[in-house]
Amino acid sequence: MAPVHGSNTSLVFYSSNTNCSSSGTSVLSCIHPSYIAAGVISVVSCLLGIPTNILMIVKLSSHLRGSSMSKRLFFNLALSDLFSLFCLLAAGVIIATRPHLTHELCQLLFYIFFFCITSSSNILMLISIQRYYQVCNLELYHCRDTKT
After folding, report:
1. What is the protein's known function (predicted)?
2. What is the largest CA-CA distance in the chain?
3. Computed from CA positions of residues 15, 16, 21, 23, in that sequence, does the dihedral angle turn out positive or negative?
């Protein structure tokens, strides 16, 4: 799999065993199957994840006032995952259209995407710590849940 520069100087990864310079060859037949699989997984993730996270945000936002820490963490996780999916969608559009971006804009997009991914990871870690604490102190949480 070697990068091949096209006539418009954009970088496209083609499979090494096909001749993509002929005019009758389909573009999809020239792209390596792993890139097609990654694109399909990204599209399915966005199609399923964006509406689901929006529904979770709407459902949890009505119960946030005076709610438990778990509901707040799940709300923040849904919000962070929604931002991550929007970043994935934006990255797909940028890759598909291949605009000429400045170095600073590329860095900004990378930092935004990195922030979204790390915030999701940190929220998952907080959820696991909260659940561990809840299991270790079961009588404290059991008494709190039965009173409300």
Report:
1. Orphan receptor; could be a chemoattractant receptor.
2. 74
3. negative
Q: Is there a contact between 3 and 13 (Cβ–Cβ < 8 Å)? A: yes
**Could you tell me the pTM of the whole model?**
0.69
User: What is the amino acid identity at position 144?
Assistant: R
Cβ pair 87, 112 in contact under 8 A: yes
In terms of DSSP H, where are the helices of the chain? Answer: 27-30, 33-61, 69-97, 103-136, 138-147
What pLDDT is attached to residue 58? 93
Chain centre distance of CA 128: 20
Residue-wise pLDDT for 53-62, tens only, equals: 999 999 988 8
Q: What angle do CA 97, 79, 113 make, to 5 degrees?
A: 40
Q: Do residues 73 and 126 make contact, with C-beta atoms less than 8 angstroms apart?
A: yes
Q: How far apart are CA 57 and CA 76, in angstroms?
A: 8
Phi-psi sector, 86: left (phi>0), alpha (psi -120 to 50), beta: alpha
Bridge partners, 2 (sequence order)? 14
pLDDT tens per residue across span 105-145: 889 988 998 998 899 999 999 999 999 988 888 777 665 55
